[in-house]
Task: structure prediction
Amino acid sequence: MASVSRLLTSSLFPPILPSALDPRQALPNPHARILVSSRVPWWKKASPAPVPEAADPAAPLIRLEGVTRTFRGEADEETHALVDVSVTLGRGEYVSVSGPSGCGKSTFLSVLALLDTPTRGQYWFNGRRVDTLTQGEKARIRNVDIGLVFQSFNLIGDMTVYENVEYPLTLRNASPPDREARTRAALDRVGLSARAKQRPGQLSGGHQQLVAVARAIAGRPPILLADEPTGNLDSKSGEALMDMLGELHAGGTTICLATHNPDYIARAGRHIYLFDGRVVDAPG
Ligand SMILES: Nc1ncnc2c1ncn2[C@@H]1O[C@H](COP(=O)(O)OP(=O)(O)O)[C@@H](O)[C@H]1O
Ligand SMILES: [Mg+2]
Result:
């Protein structure tokens, strides 16, 4: 188990799993499967936790206005990952984000998840300007309101699969029985219950991806941001995961999905296309 200090200090998940970066692990894994439980799934029994009441109920759930994110490299060169992005996401929407590699999809989701801060521009979450929120309010949003499936998984290598999924629930002080029920249900949902005691490094890239999905959904967040979540899955597991996103959306979850796959883009109700960091019209 990780040290208590790390549990207390980390409100995000450090990318310390070397195997997640191993390109051999990144190949689609033909053994990865999402098994659907025969029991009534928990996300049909219970709605996601509602986002706390908005300062202005008419305000969109998420609003970016003129958001630019510039990275400055060691030689002082600038990379414009996002340029003047103005978008909104309404409650209960299912939005896709697509565009070529390097167009800014991951940066966009990191900004939405409050893991990255715009260089310029404004972000309103639930009607409130994010730059006016306290650290505690931001931590709550990151931990309770938003579930994020990282493109790079960001699993914690010295925790078991079970502990990785349970970790965000521990940070939010969920009771032990509640933590256990949610962790087991999420692992069951992605078909990894039998791997609960393994370490992420013992799993294929596809299974690591499913652990990352289980961790993001275990807290039943009202907003789910998924960064190319099918990138390491074979087509059947990818389809199953997409079906699960559809069910979560039908249950009230707001979803923002970054993907290259045209079939998966088509499942979203609205589409955002990025090119060189800018929002553009759908490619002709
Ligand atoms: N931490 C970073 N430091 C420097 N450049 C970065 C960083 N993160 C992303 N970038 C750059 O920003 C651009 C957008 O990256 P990213 O958001 O990862 O795109 P995508 O997810 O669409 O592939 C790329 O040129 C990438 O190299
Ligand atoms: Mg990306």
